[in-house]
């Protein structure tokens, strides 16, 4: 069910943005939870709210979303890189689960690769929006 919600939210967002990025998003560690369309009843202005991982992004235009998403990806990549460096430099002792550590740093390495591709796509798309 969760995967369906993620794909449904992606589909809605993709329609709003008029860009497909499912290949870059798949297995990237980025999960779209829900998207909401809100209308200010006094002014009639529309805006959107999307929940991505543990973050929410509010936006009005595709350019708004892309700018916020680029900042989100950059921050996330920084966190992943720091965690990766920590794991690589971790001192191993007899109580360390080396298999778990290796699995985690390989997973992080893969996420960094996927999110870097996604960041590049969003930067390219942002240039087209200007």
User: Total helix count?
Assistant: 4
Could you tell me the mean pLDDT? Answer: 92
Spatial separation of the terminal alpha carbons: 37 Å
Helix-residue proportion: 55-70%
**Poorly predicted segments:** none
Description:
The chain has helices spanning 2-17, 22-25, 62-88, 98-129, and strands spanning 32-39, 46-52, 55-59. Strands 1-2-3 form a three-stranded antiparallel beta sheet. The longest helix has 32 residues, at 98-129. Helix 3 (62-88) runs antiparallel to helix 4. The chain is of the alpha+beta class.
What attributes characterize this protein structure?
130 residues; 3-stranded antiparallel beta sheet; 15% strand
Give a quick summary of the entry:
This protein is α+β, with helices and mostly antiparallel strands and 130 residues long.
Task: Reconstruct the topology from this structure.
Elements: H1 2-17, H2 22-25, E1 32-39, E2 46-52, E3 55-59, H3 62-88, H4 98-129
Antiparallel strand pairs: 1-2, 2-3
